[in-house]
Amino acid sequence: MAADGGMGFATKRREDVRFLTGRGKYTDDYSPANTTYCAFARSTVANGTIKSIDVSVAEEMPGVVAVFTGEDFVEVGGNPAGWAIVSRDGDPMKEPKRPVLAHGKVRHVGDAYAAVIAESLAEAMDAVEAIEADIEELDAVVNMADALANNDVLVHDEIGTNQCFDWGWIEDNRAATDEAIKNAPHVTTLELVNNRLVPNAMEPRCSIGEYDPGTGDYKLTTTSQNPHLTRLLISAFVMGIPENKLTVHAPDVGGGFGSKIYHYGEEALVLAAAKKLGRPVKWTSTRTEAFLSDAHGRDHVTKIELACEKDGTFIAFRTETMANVGAYLSNFSTATPTFLHGTLMAGNYTVPNVYVNVKAVFTNTAPVDAYRGAGRPEATFSLERVIDKAARELGINPVEIRRKNFVKPDQYPFASAAGLEYDSGNYDALMDGLEKHADLAGFEARAAESAKNGKLRGLGVNSYIEACGIAPSNLVGVLGSRVGLYDAATVRVNATGNISVMVGAHSHGQGHETAFPQVVADMLGVDPMSVEIVHGDTSKIPFGMGTYGSRSLAVCGSAVYRATEKIIKKATLIAAHMMEDSAENVDFADGEFSVKGTNKKVGFGEVALKAYIPHDFPIEDIEPGLEETAFYDPANFTYPSGAYACEVEVDPDTGKVDICSMVAMDDFGNVVNPMIVTGQVQGGLAQGIGQALLEHGVYDENGQLLSGSLMDYAMPRADDFPNLVVDHSYATECTHNPIGVKGCGEAGAIGSPPTVVNAVVDALQRGGHDVEHIDMPVSPARVWEAMNG
Amino acid sequence: MYNFEFSNPKTIENATKALSSEDAQALGGGQTLLPTMKQRLASAEVLVSLSGISEMVGVSQSDGTVSIGGATTHAEVARQSREAYPALAQLAGKIGDPAVRNRGTIGGSLANNDPAACYPAGALASGATIQTNKREIQADEFFRGMFETALDEGEIITSVTFPVPEVANYQKFEQPASRFALVGVFVAKTSGGVRVAVTGASNNGVYRWREAEAALSTDFSASAIDGMSGDPSDMIEDLHGSPAYRAHLVGVLTRRAVSSCS
Questions:
Q1: In the predicted model, what is the mean pLDDT of chain A?
Q2: Mean per-residue pLDDT, B45-63
Q3: Tens of pLDDT, residues B212-256
Q4: For the segment A597-630, what is each residue's pLDDT rounded down to a tens digit?
Q5: How far apart are the C-alpha atoms of A155 and A137, rounded to whole Å?
Q6: Same domain (yes/no): B215, B249
Q7: What pLDDT is recorded for position A1?
Q8: How far is CA A184 from CA A348, A350, A740, B38, in A?
Q9: Whether B186 and B210 share a structural domain
Q10: Which chain B residue's Cα is nearest to A782?
Q11: Distance, CA of A168 to CA of A629 (rounded, Å)
């Protein structure tokens, strides 16, 4: 029986007490005694040769204590990519060094080439302006097709090409897919752009380096989604600080969406500076710096072909994608367009042939990496847009063409043509739920109402599958990952019965502090408020891989589950000892241990106390204490899926799109806290609708970021959305993790963009406009131009 | 932001004095100037705040006109001119967001003459008179192109007087990111004819759309300007719209404004 507030309860988020009352403690809120302040000199050109950097005037400026340039970091390592991708011809990917500070060349606007440390931020900024950098501007390469077509302008001269890799998935399926498409009765082709996004977490990045000359210990307080990975990268690759001498602490973090997974040069800089000065060094990103230097998202250009029978049965998907990696390889940048994208290109469908080709391209733009959804939104967008176009060409209802090709419930486990094994799902049930909750049958009447008001109404539907619970280490190791992707938890039952759970996942908005205790409390039959989560500090928690890829509950939550199982096992031994019986005869339920067939019982709290006051323990058999650690490595990815519907009204006079309704039916497996899950989906929908209608990171041909501020980069606002209908009751359990959960953090951002664009195209088609596709963001100007093309 | 001296005069006279010093800069509500200064794209030796000058704050009406102190916030204009000049109140109530409306001022907006700001369209279409600490300037003479006005160094807008039209309406089509006007059109029907002012569209800032004014002065109905659109030849091209799109919107919004007047 679930304890009150245990599994499945919509418990309010306990962390919100501090977040909503201004008591959150973010990195920038921390200023150790004697802190110095760091400001960076950043390139204003997209490509340039650093002829000289004269810091002599800057060094003499008031308050300045140190100035660093790329010269100071020539001896330290580069910030590596986490996945090694092998090209179709067997060559390893090109992996130019990513230095702490640019040296020799600057490669994108915002590339930092010097840093000033001063007594105050204003003094540091003044000194940055006094740095005399002679940077010879070179032609920039921004467009991916141009970057591949000629080598006149190279982002990295030493590799002789702008192509990072040319990857085929699955290469052995290429010939069969080509053949299937050649012979197919119908082939639908679509060229589309997955627009570049700037993450824009509410809290910009911030890093504070400290060094204790007395112990030789370093501490980095930083805005990170995964402090252990940051520590590992700094220790093993960039600076060589032993892991046991470096603490990385990510306190409250105000959103990440992927952009705070990665280790950035600013983190290494503040540590190096702290060591040199023996004083804390703090850097806080401005919003402008965030636009220019945070890892951006998406930025794919894709040609997709769908071959099918005349009745709509899918025969093959084939894609050619150019994926922008920007000027340097960020940590997950090579995994995102490949194994988080190509492997999902069979969608929810029994299609027999899939072949994916991805060319990753260096350009003189900010690095591009995983951003909420990371590869799966790109896959879903391509698939679900081309399916919609095929349905239109074949005269088949878009719901029916999807149903016709769905994997059916009796086909699990299902080996997809893109190389994954789906463990569970029921896509028809989700579509049934969608037809009901979105009242698809009533659409025509609503469209007629809209027409009376002079508006074009359109309906878009979509189904998606994604891979979460990242990731089985044995599998990702084969695929090129340089790390394992397990997670870890320590459950510490204190003597007085309350519980601290140290987790490797990191909560930066997800609600772990509320949800994880629900799992533990449910298992132990205790009050969830007696369970506290400890996260974010490498000196306190076991080695975990952090939070991204909707993995926290599925992977780290499973580690919590396993550790709690160990707690129950040991507590059973103690209880048996207390009740003078053998452990086999002891049952545990609702927080009480009892001896079968007797009325002997002892509460969990009494056992906990006994564990720490072991006066009469048989010490050969039972250790004192009650604390257990588990590392959990998943057996497979998890496969959340969903069916979405969106209705839009297009104003034919202005091209403006209003979203009238958005309905999301998701299968997340078991749900620990339905309120938090609903919130996660709503947030994801907001980001997905933002991508579909508003957001666009745009560089001009010289590599200047045109949408470099919130005056031109359109972030979605509350009044851009209708009520977002979210339902996760049509669920199938994950079969391979102990909680049966799949992950919900990214679904909304994955499922919504094609749903919106499908709806807009539908509206225009119904309005008599022969428009087959509009690239995102579907802005008023673009819609108007499409209508008046 | 660079360091600066801050002056907080209580009278127009003292503000004028403070602004006579070298490299002094007037500060209205600061909704444009302060972000620009924070980015170190603007600087001043002395920042002279106009917010504390009580004689420059408030809305008054007399004899068919509404007069608004130069340091009156958009929120106050929206509240206080609702009855006397509803179209202007509606314009003011949709500038920016509540934070902007409670700091930003009419004088600051007009003096800045952002090519996508709302107030220039309202002032120009209404045929407002801009009073400064030195003189009166007619709206037709005041706007001199993008971020350019007839104001001299040290000259500040003390109040703006709007003759209240028979009917008027402002239509704003928002730029999706900034929510400034991608195009905004203010139509005012007065006894002397119809005036149509367009913001957001032109590389020269706010302007009067004379062709539409002529047509509407003859026949004040949307159908009178059916099929007409603005002249795209000197319109703004940016991420959010082409000249052709803006020119089209000028027509659409003008018709909507006229329809909303009836």
A1: 97
A2: 96
A3: 999 999 999 999 999 999 999 999 999 999 999 999 999 999 999
A4: 999 999 999 999 999 999 999 988 999 999 999 9
A5: 13
A6: yes
A7: 40
A8: 21, 16, 40, 61
A9: yes
A10: B241
A11: 40
Taking contacts as CB-CB distances below 8 angstroms, the residues of chain B near A655 are: 245
Q: Are residues A442 and A503 in the same domain?
A: no
Q: How far apart are CA A321 and CA A326, in angstroms?
A: 15
Residues A592 and A509 in one domain: yes
Q: Give the CA count within 13 Å in the CB-facing half-sphere of A421.
A: 9
Instruction: Strand A592-595: give its sheet, edge to edge.
Output: A586-589, A592-595, A601-603
Domain identity same for B176 and B141: no
Q: Is A382 part of any domain? A: yes
Q: How far is B240 from chain A (nearest CA, A)?
A: 7
Establish if A454 touches chain B: CB-CB under 8 angstroms: no
Taking CA atoms, A425 is separated from A303, A413, A498, B178, in Å, by 29, 9, 38, 42
Angle at CA of residue B26, ends B176 and B66, nearest 5°: 70
Using an 8 Å Cβ cutoff, are A279 and A248 in contact? no
| Subunit contact A698:B239, Cβ cutoff 8 A | yes
Residues B124 and B186 in one domain: no
- Please enumerate in sequence order all residues whose Cβ is within 8 A of that of B140, keeping only pairs 6 or more positions apart, or say none: B124, B127, B208
SS3 string of A259-275? CCCCCCHHHHHHHHHHH
Please tell me whether residues A509 and A458 are part of one structural domain: no
Residues A680 and A714 in one domain: yes
Tokens 């499922």, located at residue: A751
Asked if A389 and A497 sit in the same domain, the reply is no
The residue out of A587, A606, A632 marking a domain boundary is A632
Do A98 and A229 fall into the same domain?
yes
CB contact under 8 A, A122 and B3: yes
Global pTM reads 0.97
Element containing residue A660 per DSSP (H, E)? strand A657-667
Closest residue to B178, CB basis, from A693, A711, A781: A711
Task: Give how many domains chain B has, as a whole number.
Answer: 3
Q: Rounded to the nearest 5°, which phi and psi values hold at B84? A: -75, -35
Question: Within a domain: residue A347?
Answer: no
User: By residue range, what is the domain housing residue B25?
Assistant: 5-49
Kindly provide the ipTM of the predicted complex, given to two decimals.
0.96
